[in-house]
């Protein structure tokens, strides 16, 4: 199935023509949207099922809490490496093949992970967990990098709208993963949740072989270093990093803090976490549509959303310098605020990087979109690795309140730099000019 003819991204600053106006989606676009939505949902639900029961099972098998954290962290590291590699070589590998192969690898790894309870306790079990989880991360990186690039290629004039809409399915996967995995685990044991969801991913392979279009493209000589030579791109990547670090921090520390402070059960903590996910799912398509319709608003949304996110982290503890006692109602409201503001901040970043890549003279094709997808995935994974580890250390040595405060301060720094990026670009350009003259 050939890709649609109208898949060239609109150049910044070009006057809107009749071809740019909203029109009915083609069959290829509709099928691609269904396909990638299913990939996002199934991949995320398989990714998130471990939380409720795997740490306890791993401890029974001789793994310490630190080792369990490293098993989770290895996923983020391998995802980071995989995103960069897949983003660089997406044209040579083929976007469709990369997505399908990634799905297949993730499905096999999910099923295999469900069999690890049969491995001998101790070093053998721990080693196999690292191996399977790391390979799974590479498959996930391939599938998600390709899906982002294909979305941007097939929906060139509505990137933020489509990505925002797809985040609904990403959020649903993250929301449903823990309760579904926990229910199957308590009802049928360790193996069943991995088997069922692994086979769900496996079924997606033939479906996507039939549905996804093949996109032909030529490899580019451009590199990630050239993409990162633009100050604005670096600042956007810093924003992406702080957002994912914040989510990683919340995942790793909030449940223990809520249980200890408010004497809540794990079930109630899961309900509280919906306060973060649901507003994000609702905000993402709305922000995507608005920023596609008014591209000039992207930086404003990023900065405003980042400031609200930072304020939310200051109130999450709350910060010690605010002299406010922890209240359950305040935490729930704050999580909702953070969830909504994350959508405001994150959704405009991907099309913004594409815009600046085009301004730097990058080719308007799959190769560039692959690099942008890989860069986005790499910095997101870096934040997901940094957030739980550094946030956990701060929480362990100080407390949760200071951990959330540090995260809020880092987010505020990122959006402040993003707000003043034009001045930074001018200053940097002036310094380069002075250096050449001297």
UniProtKB/TrEMBL annotation:
Gene Ontology CC annotations of this record: membrane
Subcellular localization: Membrane
UniProt KW keywords: Membrane, Transmembrane, Transmembrane helix, Transport
UniProt cross-references to InterPro entries, sorted A to Z: MFS (IPR011701), MFS_dom (IPR020846), MFS_trans_sf (IPR036259), MFS_Vesicular_Transporter (IPR050930)
Highest taxon, organism lineage: Eukaryota
Gene Ontology molecular function: any one: transmembrane transporter activity
Major facilitator superfamily (MFS) profile domain ranges (all copies): 32-438
PROSITE patterns reported in the protein's UniProt record: MFS
Residue ranges, compositional bias (Basic and acidic residues): 7-23
Signal peptide segment: none
SUPFAM superfamilies reported in the protein's UniProt record: MFS general substrate transporter
Annotated stretches, region: Disordered: 1-25
Primary location: membrane
TM region positions: 31-54, 66-85, 97-116, 122-143, 155-176, 188-212, 233-256, 268-289, 301-322, 328-347, 368-390
Pfam families linked: MFS_1
Topological relation to the membrane, as annotated: Multi-pass membrane protein
Protein name: Solute carrier family 18 member B1
UniProt source species: Nothobranchius furzeri
